[in-house]
Amino acid sequence: MLSGGTDLLPKMKRRQIEPQTLVSLDRLAALRKLEGTGETGVVIGARVTLAELEQNQMLCSQYPAVAAAARSISSPPLRNAGTLGGNLCVDTRCTYYDQTYEWRKAIDFCMKKDGHVCWVAPSSPRCWAVASSDLAPVMIALNARVRLISKEGERLIPAAELYRNDGIEFLSKRQDELLTEIHLPPARTDLMLYKKLRRRGAIDFPILGVAVRLRPSNTDAAVIEEGRIALTAIGSYPFEVEAARAVLAGTRLTDEVIEQAAEAAWKRAKPLDNTDLHMSWRKEMVRVYTRRALRELRGVTSVE
In the chain, N or C terminus with fewer CB closer than 10 Å? Predict the structure, then answer.
């Protein structure tokens, strides 16, 4: 299935993906919808472009983490072509896998394509390629849902259930299913943020992405009723830091609470040496970026 093609076509050129047939989704107008409000919830078609997400005034106001994550992806020309569904389903990445065909052939192919060994962990029975979607952790933190359709029917699942902890079979979506919509829950008074770490200020895939969503209490805006933290680019799938939810619930964002949540995220992160920069430094940055995100959101709530 071909939509924007910003990830698929370069991988075809490098012979990482070799489909026999491409089916364009360009004429499926139903995949271009963007309906709803922050009060009612929003339904976004999978073919809505990243540029449209970053520029939509309602999303910028009510769901700023969605707009920020879209804005952080690649460059303006590619955001004009790339889509929400494409980024949610973007292929995993690895230092060994993301090379030219000739380079990969010279060292022997890896488990992810044409080979039998994971060169990151040669004794491992599985591939450790890294999740690289910026929008996925945001959808997980927001508790969004995705709609999958096939000739057998359709299902609406939590965004977190779309992903599997496997560098090759990283999606639970079946090959006969098409991701058609993303359903965002009502934003209410939620506070949300996405922070991305990469070597350059543009173009690069994340080597860490931290998405945070906080729901203030109805009776006291300085108290967090519910908090979610999700990470990407730190393992083979984007995931929620479940322990952070327990840390944040019913608390004020004091320095102590922020440190406890950052520690929970740090413990959950287990990067390997298969992407840019050193893995121990990337793990430490999980603590740093989680702390920065929570402190920034604390500034919004005016909690001291």
Answer: C
